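tool_call: predict_structure(chain=1)
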Amino acid sequence: MIRTRSALRHGRTAVGALLAGAALAACGGAPHQGSAAVVGGAQITIASVESRVAGLRDAVAAESGGEQTTERAGLVRRTVAELVLNQVVDRALADRQLTVTDGEIDEAKAGEAKLLGGTAELERELLFKQSVPAGDVSAFYRQQLGIQKLAAAQGKDARTAEGDAAIRAALTDAGAKLKIEVNPRYGRWDVQQIGLTNTVSDWLRQPVAGGA
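tool_result:
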């Protein structure tokens, strides 16, 4: 079941945060060059993924006081999955004319910070357990609140099996519309599973004969 804000302290099953969009290369070239993924015609660059992962590693090192820590397996791949999922959630919300406001995000953060003992404790929890750096906490909550709203729009509670089914239906539909392509070094976006799976498909496209 895709997790919701209320399940934050027990780990995350959804695959939050930093979106990186750029124009595709011109027709006749190699539009996938330098891309980690192409979502709805927008590029998520390898450079943006590597930058976010490097930032996460630096933040963990700083928080741990230089002590050696064990990095979560598949961090880079999960980062790509998060960036793709953000856009899938955004599309599903837009299709239903739903939005997540800054006020709702602030309220959600404040509520969980209170439960955990303060903002610093919340940020540390997200960093070490969810691989979310401090700068992406709001984006994390935007995604999670968006997921809740997809269930609520169907009169369902996201924490129930019926709510989970409603969420998955919405995200599956949005993913299909976006025509998601992922660099095979990270896997393939499975529209039905709403996540990355392994793949050996080609990635770089050959130039079109005769130009654009």
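agent: DSSP finds six helices and five strands in the chain. Proceeding to next step.
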